[in-house]
Design a protein that fits this description.
Elements: E1 4-15, E2 18-30, E3 35-40, H1 46-54, E4 61-66, E5 69-70, H2 76-86, E6 87-90, H3 102-108, H4 116-129, H5 145-159, E7 163-167, H6 175-188, E8 193-197, H7 201-205, E9 210-215, E10 218-224, H8 228-231, H9 248-262, H10 264-288, E11 307-312, H11 320-330, E12 334-336, H12 340-343, E13 347-354, E14 357-367, E15 376-377, E16 385-391, E17 408-410, E18 414-423, E19 431-434, H13 436-451, E20 452-462, E21 465-471, E22 474-476, E23 485-488, H14 490-498, E24 503-514, E25 522-530, E26 535-536, E27 556-559, H15 561-575, E28 579-582, H16 586-598, E29 601-605, H17 614-651, H18 654-662, H19 667-698, H20 711-737, H21 741-747
Parallel strand pairs: 3-8, 3-9, 6-7, 7-8, 14-19, 16-18, 22-27, 23-26
Antiparallel strand pairs: 1-2, 1-4, 4-5, 9-10, 11-28, 11-29, 12-28, 13-14, 13-17, 15-18, 16-19, 17-18, 20-21, 20-24, 23-27, 24-25
The chain binds adenosine-5'-diphosphate and magnesium ion.
């Protein structure tokens, strides 16, 4: 059976309304061991014949048989496999990849060998056979014509394909080099079928076994000079099936790496554009991160899992016993009679002073939270102590890492800072960590200060003489002894100096208003009289360290924390109808709420008190949409960038790709290679950008400039950019492969 048979083969080119005959009615049969020289005038169809035989161009008429098998039904992938198995192609214009070294060019044809060492050894051996050992590391572009053609021959040998097609292989070489190449071709092809298209039959006269002349696309003469069997080994050499086929992905990976490394400048350029693109996405995402804070949690009552807020329907104030009994009958785990502490004053206005630097900020007061071991200073232990949790960008403001005990925070009182912990996530609100007692005291202070109107009257009586001093406000200080109050007033002090035996009474008239959503609001008035023995330092008052607004000459009443708490509680006992019950979880809370409602109470699980504010929701939605729009535009911008750079990179690669396809490297392998090459640019670029982001966010100087990004956002951005890159590469590769191999060879760098 003939190796290759052409039966009535015809190829017609139709373009722009013109029809050109490539070849027609070609009947030929070839065997192994033949060395066929094809001659004919320019335009007679020689190249067309080779292209049809190689499967790089389709034929419209007849049938081409390979080892007896018809091929007219072949699809692109079948032709790829066909080329990979049977064909080596040698062009007039040296179809080697200019950016690859001699070694890489040869190894390209050895991709089916999985073992790298074996592959390398075989490549070196073949290069030695064509006499190029000294040029192994030279790039294709640096070789002479003869050396290029030798490389191609070495590659043809590497493929070990039974058919070598050469289209004017010596057309661009001087006669001496031509002779060498002819000799080499002859030497390496004893058991193969060689078909050479040539202008000068004389060059090949010595080795050709057959001479075919083409005229106007048809065979004009077919002259067998020597029987092929005379030179070929007698036994029929079966094409050895490739040992073990490497997967497309593996081939693609090694090819992609080679392509990436072969054009370092282009790869760097790709990398750079990727950096610019991703950096842009990061910046915009960071800026849009502000939008994440737009939707605030607006629970009317502080949400705690399992919490039910309860109040009486008529506003009557339940006793502690009543609350305890209700808790027991409904199966509550715990109860809080005065739960105002939970819902009031969660965020405080803080004034932090350190060496003349003053920082005012809103902070959440928390207790029983663990800030970890890396706290600068120590955790608070007494009610008047506080541990600050501050953004890292404030560290330089305070000049040092440690905020010592001299630094004071005010919440309508003075606190001692025992330590500080800096955080990097600038989406967070600062926190003040207190002891449980400190938290309760602080809330009592604020509850009194912001829900009550307090008038203070001071009367000093000495015998028949009585003097009144007017006050309007009070403060709480941890420096005042338990149960006491300090009085500051220059006039009062002067009076006490002249009346040392005078007795003093302080009357606090408290008008307490209370608003609860469920149940009527209460207004209750109180009177609290502090008698003389509760007042200290009557005559020698001096400002207390850390007192908020006090200076000499000011008039103030300074209460101890215990006294403040006692007053707050007294106020609550007389007016506060609301309390909280705590159940195992929200489900249990919901069930209990129904039970309580049936018992005549207004009972609301804290989970159901979410109260969206329509106005701010609308604003948040609009702003978010705008941010998403900006973000989308940034993505498009990035897409444009990737498209631009990869188009440029692909264009520079078009000719090489055509050469690879002529060798039978499949579209899928090349596509994977292009993906790999893009990823090799993307991944370092991405890593660089992420490292920059981390540097920025860990730096106290720069942390505040960009909205902090979380791990999942880095992952999301990466996935987005990855998908975008792969999609664009896919489209571009498809666009390039829309053209036939031959056309891209002509249009590419080869011709
Ligand atoms: P040769 O290699 O012998 O010089 P070719 O095989 O290249 O000749 O061309 C044979 C004929 O087919 C010529 O008339 C040429 O113009 C035509 N031809 C070749 N390739 C194309 C093509 N891609 N589109 C249109 N006509 C073509
Ligand atoms: Mg030609």
């Amino acid at each position: 059976m003939a190796l290759l048979t052409l039966k009535d083969i015809g190829k017609i080119y139709a373009s722009d309304g013109n029809v050109a005959v490539g070849v027609r009615g070609v009947n030929l049969s070839f065997e192994r061991g033949e060395f066929v020289a094809v001659t004919g005038r320019s335009g007679s169809g020689k190249s067309t014949l080779l292209n049809v035989i190689s499967g790089m161009d389709t034929y419209e008429e007849g049938e081409l048989f390979i080892e007896g098998e018809p091929t007219s039904h072949y699809l692109q992938t079948d032709w790829e496999a066909y080329r990979e198995r049977y064909i080596s192609f040698i062009f007039q214009d040296y179809n080697i990849i200019d950016s690859f070294t001699v070694l890489q060019n040869v190894e390209l044809a050895l991709m089916h060998i999985e073992d790298k060492k074996q592959r390398r050894a075989k490549a070196l051996d073949l290069i030695a056979r064509v006499g190029l050992t000294s040029h192994i590391g030279h790039k294709g572009s640096k070789l002479s014509g003869g050396q290029k053609q030798r490389t191609v021959i070495a590659r043809a040998l590497a493929k070990d394909s039974p058919i070598i097609l050469a289209d004017e292989p010596t057309g661009n070489l001087d006669s001496a080099t031509s002779a060498e190449i002819v000799a080499l071709l002859r030497e390496v092809s004893r058991d193969k079928l060689v078909i050479v298209v040539t202008h000068s039959f004389e060059q090949f006269a010595s080795c050709a076994t057959r001479h075919i002349r083409i005229f106007d696309g048809a065979i004009e003469a077919d002259h067998v000079m020597t029987s092929p069997l005379a030179t070929a080994p007698l036994q029929v050499v079966q094409t050895a099936p490739h040992p073990r086929r490497l997967s497309t992905v593996k081939k693609g990976f090694s090819l992609g790496r080679a392509i990436f490394a072969a054009k370092p400048k282009l790869s760097l350029f790709l990398c750079l554009l990727m950096i610019i693109g991703t950096l842009g996405i990061f910046l915009v995402t960071s800026l849009c991160g502000e939008g994440m804070n737009l939707f605030e949690d607006t629970h009317m009552f502080t949400y705690i899992d399992g919490r039910v807020v309860v109040t009486t329907r008529d506003g009557s104030v339940p006793s502690l016993d009543t609350v305890a009994a209700l808790a027991a009958t409904t199966g509550a785990q715990s109860y809080l009679r005065y739960d105002a502490l939970l819902d009031e004053g969660r965020s405080y206005q803080v004034r932090l002073e350190h060496e003349g630097e003053v920082k005012r900020f809103a902070a959440n007061c928390v207790y029983a939270e663990d800030f970890g071991n890396d706290v600068i200073g120590r955790y608070p232990e007494a009610a008047g102590e506080v541990l600050l949790y501050l953004p890292i960008s404030w560290r330089p403001v305070f000049g040092s890492d440690t905020l010592t005990t001299n630094h004071i925070v005010y919440f309508g009182t003075g606190l001692t800072v025992t330590g500080v912990k800096y955080y990097y996530d600038n989406n967070l609100t600062p926190k003040c960590l207190l002891t449980e007692e400190g938290f309760r005291t602080l809330t009592a202070i604020n509850y009194l200060r912001y829900n009550s109107e307090i008038n203070i009257t001071v009367t000093a009586t000495d015998g028949s003489v009585s003097e009144r001093f007017g006050y309007t406000d009070f403060y709480t200080s941890y420096e005042v002894e338990s149960g006491k109050a300090y009085l500051y007033d220059p006039l009062y002090r002067a009076y006490m100096k002249t009346h040392p035996s005078a007795t003093t009474s302080v009357k606090l008239s408290i008008m307490h208003r209370e608003y609860t959503m469920y149940g009527p609001s209460n207004t209750v008035s109180f009177e609290k009289v502090l008698t003389d023995d509760a007042l200290t330092d009557k005559s020698s008052a001096k400002p207390i360290k850390g007192s908020p607004y006090l200076g000499y000459g000011d008039t103030h009443l300074m209460l101890s924390p215990e006294l403040t708490c006692a007053i707050a509680e007294e106020v609550l006992v007389k007016s506060y109808a609301q309390f909280s019950l705590f159940y195992a979880d929200d489900a249990a809370a919901a069930a209990a709420a129904e039970q309580l409602a049936a018992a005549g109470y207004i009972a609301v699980p804290s989970s159901t008190t979410y109260q969206p504010d329509p106005y701010s929701t609308v604003v948040a939605v609009l702003l978010s949409l705008a941010l998403i729009g900006v973000w989308g535009m940034a993505i498009l911008f990035l897409a444009f960038f990737i498209n631009l750079c990869s188009a440029r990179a692909l264009a520079a690669f078009g000719g090489d790709m055509a050469i690879m396809r002529s060798m039978g490297i499949s579209v899928r392998v090349i596509r994977v290679a292009m993906y790999v090459r893009m990823l090799l640019s993307l991944i370092p670029a991405y890593v660089l950008v992420v490292l920059t982001a981390i540097l920025i966010f860990t730096s106290p100087r720069f942390n505040a400039y960009f909205v902090y990004l979380y791990g999942w956002q880095y992952v999301l951005i990466f996935l987005g950019v990855l998908l975008l890159t792969l999609r664009i590469t896919y489209l571009q590769v498809r666009r390039m492969f829309g053209e036939s191999v031959k056309k891209s060879l002509r249009g590419g760098a080869v011709v």
